[in-house]
């Protein structure tokens, strides 16, 4: 297990190294002057700015400095707001995105497991087919479409009720988080529902379930301790990719709901071509996602004894 | 069993040993090929067939649409900005209104000015001249002590403190007329005028006016050069309305379909082809080649897809006048092939050692024969299913990137970029967002349902789970 963890972490470091290098290479392949957008009034200011961002040095030196800073966790200074470091931006905006992402992930996982179990129990019935169709719809509607529709719907609801039932934009209170978290988690919820359902259906015909039934265990016990425990495993494997899709989905949902999260900031930086912020945040997001996928995989090995044994025996 | 009573079901002859050449044992029905069988299964799936029809319609619309709906998607018409969906209409051509001159009332020295902030409502508020959708002119009697007048417009009857949209303020207390030319439509308006002397009084005079549909002469001449005031011109219909530059939404949807579906089809086709080749080689050759190809696959899979797509776009798609389609395609292909490679490799590994392949090999089949005759056809089903799921994925990616402004660049329409334009005015003009959003959702839904159907039809083993 330790050997496996170390191996995965090492592979993760290589991946992040590559992401950082690719980011650097791509950003330096951009034609034109990175300072063209900044307000440069005189050659002196220009020279100062170039020195501040290290643009006056050879590319290889810039690369070395950049990699050393990244390794130390220093992501540089924003291009458009020259008194703000990328680390400041992350410190200020990432917690917002993290809360939103966790809420969405929690909603998606809980909802997915519940709906998946429900449809598996009612397989072939009208409820099952209806939920399954809704699930495909949920997978097919882009999150920004759902977000916009939900916003409009709640606006109408607010107008009809005469009070603010739910705020439709902004951040701060828990009530303001509900709508964005639903929009962000919906696609993942649909996806996990499907997964949970097919995983449970496969388990229903397993020998140990038949044994449990033959022993005369009550249905809820079989479901909770035999079916659910095993059926939830594939859901856990896919939490890594689910987290990735929720993180990037946040770019859009935060923009629609005007939430001051890192995702919206990233989109704004991309649109404003704020190179250092783009580079810093890409590497940050990349490292975050790689780490999360590894964490989920390790947790999976810990949860599923079959995998644990295979890994300890094998590598 | 419904045999005639008394007649035995089997006679002794039936149990006699078969003779050579006796064909009674042969299968009577023709054997079904894999694909015929799959098609028969798919045909029973109503959702999948409905999706197939929708997809065919979409493709047909994309190819033939611009021929059938001959409206230039790039033509801007600033006279028809953000118009709701409408049918064609015959409109009366309006004459050029006479030049507007402010009415100035002389001071009536005798009347005493009331206390500050408590001015009465202007008396005798009325519509001057002929109100049209070009201009509505108001005039009223002077209020003693007023420094100016505020004019409001509302599309519903004003009540309480609500007077509607503030239109403007007259320059002085002696100016007792106002001309409204702001976005007038053929509907009923309530105009309210409030006198003010610094402190605004809420005592308003209100007048209602109902405007008839009409079209200004200059706009009419664009449609029909021979149009004259009082005549009628045909205004072409906009079945899905117009966008913020007055462009026809339906025409843009059709031209956007070309971009979106081009990306949605080309990228998956290419990256699945690459994935199949790499995965096939990897699985078939095995050994060191397999090891390294799979290492690279694992590595590319670990990369955050959308982040790198954004980076790629920032680096290579920024030039002016470029649509940004090619960089998007390249990035999708570079990062997308891994799934197909893994799938094909697994499939090939499984088939390579299957009995029928070993038998064929024993019979002396060459490698190319094995590949083309056995491995490829048996992998094709799985690949087709993954292609059907990859297409909505690519449409999604395009929409996502264009929505955050990192996809197709502005003058070119795509469904994603239309959503991006539309959502800014969603609360005021919902049709501009809904048209592309619904189209994306329906297209992706159709592909997903078809993919589900194909998977069930092509792989009966998975069906047992259902």
List keywords for this structure.
A: 315 residues; mainly alpha; 0% strand; B: 466 residues; alpha+beta; 2 domains; three-stranded mixed sheet; 13 helices; elongated
3D architecture notes:
The complex is a heterodimer of chains A (315) and B (466). With 315 residues, chain A is mainly α. Chain A is built from 14 helices and no strands. In chain A, helix 4 packs across helix 7 (174-204), helix 4 (86-121) crosses helix 11 (239-256) and helix 13 (275-303) packs across helix 14. The radius of gyration of chain A is 24 Å and the shape is flat. The model of chain A has no long low-confidence stretch (mean pLDDT 83). Chain B is α+β, with helices and mostly antiparallel strands and 466 residues long. Helices cover 47% and strands 12% of the residues of chain B. In chain B, the strands form 3 sheets. Chain B has a 4-stranded antiparallel beta sheet, with no helix packed on it. In chain B, strands 9-1-10 form a 3-stranded mixed beta sheet, with helices on one face. In chain B, a hairpin with a 7-residue loop joins strand 2 and strand 3 (136-139). In chain B, helix 4 packs antiparallel against helix 5 (287-302), helix 8 packs antiparallel against helix 10 and helix 11 (415-423) runs antiparallel to helix 12 (431-458). The A-B interface holds A 11-12, 14-15, 18-19, 22-23, 26-27, 29-32, 123, 133, 136-137, 139-142, 144-145, 148-149, 151-152, 155, 198, 201-202, 244, 248, 251-252, 255-256, 267, 270-271, 273, 278, 282, 285-286, 289-290, 293 and B 47, 298-299, 302-304, 306-308, 310-312, 314-316, 318-319, 392, 396, 399-400, 403-406, 419, 423, 426-427, 430, 433, 437, 440-441, 444-445, 448-449, 452, 465-466.
